[in-house]
């Protein structure tokens, strides 16, 4: 085993393997030892399996580096994939996804799966099937969602980098909660086949959560680009991101705001973090000014929830077809049933109208970037919240009664009911979902910790297709104020 395994990023570990200072097997043993030591408290890893070492590329940029796939969509033949749901608890993958093929080609060694909320629907990782993932910085708090298991595993040192996906902030939210770098790529930058061309009407994209900027850049170089069956794809690259981030960065025009883009009231710590990072950017030679996109936040949130419900209803119908049976009430969590019935109570015309309205709001937001390269905001509306914040025992009991009496569809036609259900979530994430609708790249950069010792994320959103500028800026910020030395408190070092 490698004694100081957790001190390296993925690129650093791959360099040790290439120099024959450590073997792939030794790194695997180091990772499994870290999981054994830490996961009883964190609950970040839900499946472990013997890695398909014979299928990994020994010449790839991450040759020999241990890696966790998220328990959502990252299909690896023969391995369990539960999607965080009791409905899928016995499911095993019948084929690899194209993204996983590319990760294997990059040399990554798949050793298990990280925890995810049911179907990735929540901003906290607390599935009934596997239980809650805890934040390495404070075990009483959430690691975020939906890639919370991935973030907790990376922050605690189990693996240096892990698979993640983002349909409303699910890379950036847990990265912010756990003090990590997390970039959501441009829509269609990475493949989702062969099972899908797009998920959630193009809102979802897959990538990684990492400690270092360079790991994220190299991973995107290894996975980006269309597959044969892609219906559309992101703009092509001028040069690899690993090279791009070292290019001299011209002074950028950076807008910043601490005002929420969606309904919510950001915490004072989040506001202070943005103001501090705005000053840092100015000291690095960038032009920084306060400005924000203007849009109807309430109607955006309402349409977002409407389209989400329709997407969940469709995804569950496809899931039932895949496993060959209908879901019983015990198969799904109450919040999932709520979204499903919302979707089923929505007509096709209403769902399409909501989607069209969101596209109109997206065009308004994209026009805001004409004079700006980047928008700086808080990543979250507050520091990491306690476990159970998005659950209510009373709500679950009412859900059981309404489902049993089949009255839920009628209740869901009342707009106030839908808005009340969404309000807790948007209070925590009043910034991240916007980039999923516009398709823009956006990244959490871990530059600030509050007085309680918790990471407070700051988010930079770039122009459509321009991950290059984000990587250049992130690398500059990492050099100016490195976070690589920061570790969660003992005993989780």
Short description:
It contains 16 helices and 13 strands.
Task: Report the order of strands and helices.
Answer: HHEEHEEEHEHEEHHEHEHHHEHHHHEEH
Number of helices: 16
Largest sheet: 8 strands, mixed
Kindly state the percentage of residues in helix.
25-40%
CATH superfamily of one domain: Amidase signature (AS) domain
What is the general shape? globular
Strand content: 5-15%
- Quaternary status of these chains? single chain
If you average the pLDDT, what whole number results?
93
Sequence stretches where pLDDT stays below 50 over 5 or more residues: none
Strand order of the largest sheet: 6-8-7-12-13-11-9-10
How many beta-strand segments? 13
Which architecture of one domain would the CATH scheme give at its second level?
A: Alpha-Beta Complex
Give the C-alpha Rg.
21 Å
CATH class of one domain equals: Alpha Beta
First and last CA, distance: 17 Å
Describe the structure.
The protein is 39% helix and 14% strand. It is built from 16 helices and 13 strands. The protein has a domain at 5-253 and 473-480: Amidase signature (AS) domain (Amidase signature (AS) enzymes). The model has no long low-confidence stretch (mean pLDDT 93). A hairpin with a 2-residue loop joins strand 4 and strand 5 (138-142). The strands form 3 sheets. The chain has an 8-stranded mixed beta sheet, with helices on both faces. Strands 1-3-2 form a 3-stranded mixed beta sheet. The protein is globular and about 60 Å long. The chain is an alpha+beta fold and 493 residues long. Helix 4 packs parallel to helix 5 (172-178), helix 9 (297-323) crosses helix 10 (334-345) and helix 9 (297-323) crosses helix 11.
């Amino acid at each position: 085993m490698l004694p100081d395994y957790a001190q390296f990023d993925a690129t650093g570990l791959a360099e040790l393997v290439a120099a024959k200072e450590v073997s792939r097997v030794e790194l695997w043993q180091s990772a499994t030892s870290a999981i054994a030591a830490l996961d009883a408290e964190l609950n970040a890893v839900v499946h472990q399996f013997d890695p398909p070492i014979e299928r990994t590329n020994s010449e790839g940029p991450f040759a020999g580096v241990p890696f966790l796939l998220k328990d959502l969509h990252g299909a690896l033949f023969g391995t369990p994939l539960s999607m965080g749901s009791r409905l899928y608890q016995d499911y095993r993958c019948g084929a690899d996804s194209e993204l996983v093929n590319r990760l294997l080609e990059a040399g990554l060694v798949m050793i298990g799966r990280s925890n995810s909320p049911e179907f990735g629907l929540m901003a906290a990782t607390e599935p009934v099937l596997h239980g809650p993932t805890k934040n390495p910085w404070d075990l009483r708090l959430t690691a975020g969602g939906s890639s919370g298991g991935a973030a907790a595993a990376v922050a605690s040192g189990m693996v240096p980098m892990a698979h993640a996906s983002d349909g409303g902030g699910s890379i950036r939210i847990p990265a912010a909660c756990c003090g990590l770098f997390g970039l959501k790529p441009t829509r269609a930058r990475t493949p989702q086949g062969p099972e899908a061309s797009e998920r959630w009407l193009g809102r979802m994209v897959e990538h990684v959560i990492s400690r270092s900027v360079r790991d994220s850049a190299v991973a995107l170089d290894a996975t980006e680009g269309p597959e044969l069956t892609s219906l559309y794809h992101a703009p092509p690259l001028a040069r690899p991101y690993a090279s791009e981030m070292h290019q001299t960065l011209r002074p950028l025009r950076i807008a910043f705001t601490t005002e929420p883009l969606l309904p919510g009231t950001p915490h004072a710590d989040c506001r202070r973090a943005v103001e501090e990072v705005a000053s840092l950017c100015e000291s690095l030679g960038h032009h920084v000014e306060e400005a924000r996109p203007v849009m109807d936040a309430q109607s955006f949130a309402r349409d977002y929830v409407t389209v989400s419900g329709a997407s969940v209803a469709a995804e569950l119908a496809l899931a039932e077809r895949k496993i060959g049976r209908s879901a019983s009430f015990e198969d799904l969590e109450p919040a999932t049933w709520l979204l499903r019935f919302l979707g089923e109570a929505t007509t096709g015309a209403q769902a399409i109208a909501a989607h069209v309205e969101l596209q109109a709001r997206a065009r308004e937001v994209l026009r805001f970037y004409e004079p700006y390269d980047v928008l700086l905001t808080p990543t979250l509306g507050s520091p990491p919240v306690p476990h159970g914040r998005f659950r209510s025992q009373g709500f679950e009991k009412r859900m059981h009664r309404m489902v049993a009496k089949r009255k839920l569809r009628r209740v869901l036609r009342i707009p106030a009911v839908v808005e009340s259900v969404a309000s807790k979530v948007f209070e925590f994430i009043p910034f991240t979902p916007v980039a999923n609708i516009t398709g823009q790249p956006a990244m959490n950069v871990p530059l600030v910790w509050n007085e309680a010792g918790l990471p407070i994320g700051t988010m930079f959103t770039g122009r459509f297709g321009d991950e290059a500028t984000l990587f250049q800026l992130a690398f500059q910020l990492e050099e100016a104020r490195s976070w690589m030395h920061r570790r969660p408190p003992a005993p989780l070092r």
